[in-house]
Amino acid sequence: KQLMAMEITQFLLAAQSADARVRTEAEGSLKQFQEQNLPQFLLSLSFELANNEKPSESRRLAGILLKNSLDAKDSGRKELLVKQWCAIDLALKSQIKELLLRTIGSSVPEARHTSAQVIAKVASIEVPQKQWPELVGSLLSNMTQPESPAHLKQSTLETLGYVCEEISHHDLVQDEVNSVLTAVVQGMNQAANNAEVRLAATKALLNALDFSQTNFENEMERSYIMKMVCETACAKEAVIRQAAFECLVSIASTYYEVLEQYMQTLFELTAKAVKEDEESVALQAVEFWSTICDEEIDRQEYDSPDTGDSSPPHSGFIEKALPHLVPMLLETLEKQEEDQDHEDDVWNISMAGGTCLGLVARTVGDGIVPLVMPFVEVNIRKPNWRSREAATYAFGSILEGPTIDKLAPMVAAGLEFLLTATKDENNHVRDTTAWTLSRIFEFLHTPDSGFSVISPQNLPRIVGVLLESMKDVPNVAEKVCGAIYNLAQGYEDAGASSSLLSPYLTEIIQHLLAAAERTDGPESKLRSASYETLNEVVRCSNLLEASGIIGQLLPVIMVKLGQTMDLQVVSTEDREKQAELQASLCGVLQVIIQKLSSKDETKPIIMQNADQIMMLFLRVFGCHSSSVHEEAMLAIGALAYATGAEFAKYMPELFKYLQTGLQNFEEYQVCSITVGVIGDICRALDDKILPFCDQIMSLLIQNLQSDALHRSVKPPIFSCFGDIALAIGGHFERYVATALQIMQGAAQVCAQMDTLDEELMDYGNQLRRSIFEAYSGILQGFKDAKAELMVPYAQHLLQFVELVSKDSLRDESVTKAAVAAMGDLADVVGEKIKPLFSNFTFCGEFLSECLDSEDEDLKDTARWTQGMIARLMVT
Amino acid sequence: MAPHDLRRPFKRRPISDQQKRRELSLLRQSQHRSDAQQRARNLASSVISLQSPSSPDVDPETLPEPMPDLATTGHESEASNFDIRQASSLRGPEARKWFASQLMLPEWMIDVPENLSRDWYVLARPAGKRCFVVSADGTTVSRLRNGSVLHHFPSALPGGARKKGVSGPAQSYSILDCIFHEADQTYYVIDMVCWRGYSLYECTAEFRFFWLQSKLDETGACDPPSFYHKFRFSVVPFYNCDQSGLHSAYTGSLPYLKDGLLFYNKHAHYHTGNTPLVLIWKDERCSQYVIDTDNNGQVPNQQHIVLELQDDGKIVTSDDPAVVVNCLNADFIKQSGLSPGSLVRFAIGDGGLNCVDGKFEKADLQYISVSNRARAFADSYSKIMFQYMARHSPLKAEDLASVISQENQQDKLPEVEMSD
């Protein structure tokens, strides 16, 4: 064993050698060791990590290899690792855990740190299974032993923090939670501990907060924790203060309800931090208020007026703090950095303050206006650019939240000033001005609901200014794109107003195309923004007036897409750039195809170009061997809808890419989009899809059975069953047994879902709707020929409908799909299942509920179903 | 511990355009899925009237007890009217199938029916596009036999324009069987299927024509075009098919270009699809299009016909039941890449056609190609035979006239005998 440990040191060092050959060889040996004898391998690594005489490089790698043997990002791999660990001999595992716990007492900080992380990984496997009951006790004794050195306490707290992060509070009993919390909070005690220990304790508390529900319900315990956190927020060391404020941010969202009694103190603490502390701390202090806003906005949105509940939705902390909060935030606005608009990863106090101001406006509405406008008026003309930018940003921030009545006069009065300010000498001011204009168009330009600050009189000036500013530096041009995006969006479906932008479309499109071609910006942000804006302009245009212009745009974009195939691609980076540009252009094509095919008059433009468009998409696919290009796939769906049955001729070429797309589990969006496109193609081709169905169905079924595929793709697959069945009719017979078996299985899963988990319920609703859609498609497809095939499944379907009908939380769309499937069953299978309908007495009640619905669609469907069942009963 | 990420979106839209496109695509797909399924349901509901406002409100508590009042067959015709209105929103192949099956389609006259002069009307068919005109909910839509929209326009038909006071109740809708005559931009009405929500499917042609004559004019639909009335409608003059009626239809001067004569049996209901109770006949004098032309407008040397290939290799006409013309061998089908359901174009060779009792004894067919997709159907037996006769021994106008005069004599003969 000693020898082994000796050898592994050399391998671990060699595996980090600069010499590639040596490195590769050592990596091979380590891998071989791991594969041949995993338990000994892990034990050797643990010895290495625990041994203070070993070089730090080999200990570091030993720790990394241990972690990687216990955890992986990929869920399939993770599962395998967990199985392997569980299979290892208990005694050997105890030895490893013993070594790890010993290592957190090491004098070498790095080894302690690594060991803390590995312990948390082991805990994530063993604590939920109650396999490591002594862990918490063992860690806590490190804290209570009087002779424990500070560095052991520090590592122990760090370990506790990591462990809390890895496990759920259900995995510990309340006594353990209490002890952990006590140990952590005592570790924060300034008098008793050094800075390292206090920092580790504060960070551990952040992870332990989720565990502390019970403790926060108890006022005494809660107040003690709050007192310690607030004291720590005043610590001498900035990193500790920062950690304490992070705890306050987390408390603000987790324990909003019990904060009332601490708000005065918290306001004072945060105000002080924002005013005078280091930026890293001040940012957390602002984040505290942003989080309070998030909570109150959330509660306001959930508070539906018809519940009859007259109590306010939240404690109104923002409202109460408003007179002090707003000046505090306004003060941050003038602390801009010179180049914050050029960098993506900048986050500073003025950005945080401005963002928080916007959230405050959304929380309190009109109340913020009188507090902000004087600041705007005083500063917006000052010679110092910081003042002008801050004033403009403040103005832009409060445009969402207050009522249109309150904002409209101010915006009307300020619009001309802002248009002029697009020529300000300062880049930041122009950037923020353009952003503010885009906010104005977003919130105060809704002609379809009867209000817009834009009139036929000022529109020419506005468009002129925006197009001129498109030529400004890239960061400003990008914001102008946003303004045009919102300007165009306002005119979507706006009745007579929708024509107002038509005269400018040609020029707008030209400018956007020119901006997309610019190479002076960082990366491709301006290009993406230009194309996205182009999409919105096309999408929102008045088709009858714009069809000519869009018809001219089509070949331009096609040429551009064609040119991307000729780009020189040497590196991976080149490949990514090409893919990104192709994504933008395929996006534009998708929008054009959808727009032009939405009316019979303009559809021929797409039909005439369909062959070339399809060829381009196939070439895009050809550029990327590893996956299918998501945007091209999305656009193909639109093309299939536009071309209808003509699409059949593309299938031989396209089919392999559809297969690849269906097998792309990793980028599950691609898989999901491919499933949707297959639905589009089914509707376009009808039974001409038949030759491809065996392969499609087999892939879809594999996908449904796989745990590796993201669950969000599964409902679309069921819907796709329905699409296929409706397209191929009686030919679906060969799949019916398998498909129905999986549908019944999935229905079972729905029945057992945890109804408290909101996200899961959302998924459950999607899943149930899609299963009903599959039933409907299959039933309708069998109507003329194979109706009897569905007789054996009728009972199950009705049971499923019954189950769903008894679920009061079901979504309206689920109800509709269920009622429709029931009607389809009556219509298609008919006579043979008449007795079944007599037995299912829930039908009448369920239909009656649907007939009382406000939703006309649902009522129609229910009436239809009622008729189908009634017809069945009388014949 | 992952550091808490503080950054929030700054001067950014929260949703990316790509995400928006994805969501719009999903929305579109789900809309189309529900449309497709809804469509199937509408077509399915053709036996009972579900949407009719008079449909009694069923107490759902009593389901699944029998509901005799809902499913009475008396609603049948009303239901099919409703479907046509609904079907106006159909697209693509469904629409084609649907509209093709909703129009009453004449057979070609290959022999003269009995009692022509007593039981039949004759009218000169205007040259142009056959279409259904549906007016409802303040607008009028005309759709060709293939389902595609010809015009979408305001008209003086009941409910045909968004104009108050004229159109009658909102629920009312009308369906006319028309031919659109390009030269004078007029819809010539050849039949009336539904009027102000009242179904004429189950009425005799005699009644429908009478109704058409008396009702259309009173709406102002026959007036010249105006803002709320984009196209003029006009009733095609029809005659009893006696000597003078036939003569008027055949030689009379009319405001439109003729394309053959249509014969309507007076007792026939409006029957969707092909019917032997409406007949079309043409010759060079009353039609420019007697013998079929190819894509270039030329009359080919040989007669071309389009037939449908069945599962068993038989090639058949569009009739119901289909008439078998010939049979293709499996190798040939494979080589030519044909599949069941394919529409296949043939030329008739020198061997010609030979028929006995409506069945083909012999057919000398030469394979040309798969027919283009614009076609929804194979040729009918009567069309093939009419075209064949037109090339070899046409049924002439004189033949029609002589049949009528014989019928007249037969009618008189008994009297003569009695008086003897």
Automatic annotation (TrEMBL), chain A:
- Domain of life, per the record? Eukaryota
Residue span, Importin N-terminal domain: 26-106
- What are the TM regions of this chain, as residue ranges? none
Instruction: State the name under which the record lists this protein.
Output: Importin N-terminal domain-containing protein
User: Would I find 4Fe-4S among this entry's keywords?
Assistant: no
Q: Please name the PANTHER family in this protein's record.
A: IMPORTIN BETA (PTHR10527)
| Keywords carried by this UniProt record | Cytoplasm, Nucleus, Protein transport, Repeat, Transport
InterPro entries, from UniProt? ARM-like, ARM-type_fold, IMB1_TNPO1-like_TPR, Importin-beta_N, Importin_beta, TPR_IPO4/5
Chief place where the protein resides: cytoplasm
- Organism of derivation: Brassica rapa subsp. trilocularis
Gene symbol here is A05p050180.1_BraROA
Automatic annotation (TrEMBL), chain B:
Q: What Pfam families does this protein's entry cite?
A: SPN1_m3Gcap_bd
GO MF terms held by the record: RNA binding
Q: Which residues form a coiled coil?
A: none
Q: Which GO terms describe its biological process?
A: snRNA import into nucleus
The Snurportin-1 m3G cap-binding domain sits at: 102-279
* Record's subcellular location: Cytoplasm; Nucleus
Which residues does the annotated region (Disordered) include?
A: 1-81
InterPro entries membership: Snurportin-1 (IPR017336), Snurportin1_C (IPR047857)
The yes or no answer to whether the keyword Transport is present is: yes
Family designation: Belongs to the snurportin family.
Protein name per the record = Snurportin-1
Species the sequence originates in: Brassica campestris
